[in-house]
Specification:
Length: about 100
């Protein structure tokens, strides 16, 4: 686990993570940019409010992606079942035809 000194929206902190430095810098940069955009475009939005809005936004995105992953996993399971059924059917037809 690595320690990184980061700064988000002017707030410095140290984080520990298994992620590499490039990934940490990317994530920190994206969050810092998003918070700064929110506070710059809405002067009544504090950094704390912007951070909470970012957390809400990212959690909504995560929930949507989790739902999409579950749907894709269900599709893969259906496709796998169809492939297995077709393999069995193909083997039965080959046997009837005396092939292989």
């Amino acid at each position: 686990m690595e320690k990184y000194d980061i700064e988000i929206a002017g707030i410095a902190m140290t984080v520990k993570t298994d992620e590499n430095e490039d990934f940490v810098n990317y994530v920190v940069g994206e969050l810092d940019k998003r918070i700064n955009e929110m506070t710059r475009h809405n002067l009544r939005c504090s950094k704390t409010e912007a951070a909470l809005l970012c957390a809400l936004e990212y959690n909504c995105d995560r929930a949507r992606l989790e739902k999409k992953v579950k749907n894709l996993e269900a599709q893969v399971a259906l496709y796998t079942a169809n492939v297995n059924r077709l393999k069995t059917e193909n083997a039965e037809l080959k046997e009837k035809l005396g092939i292989g």
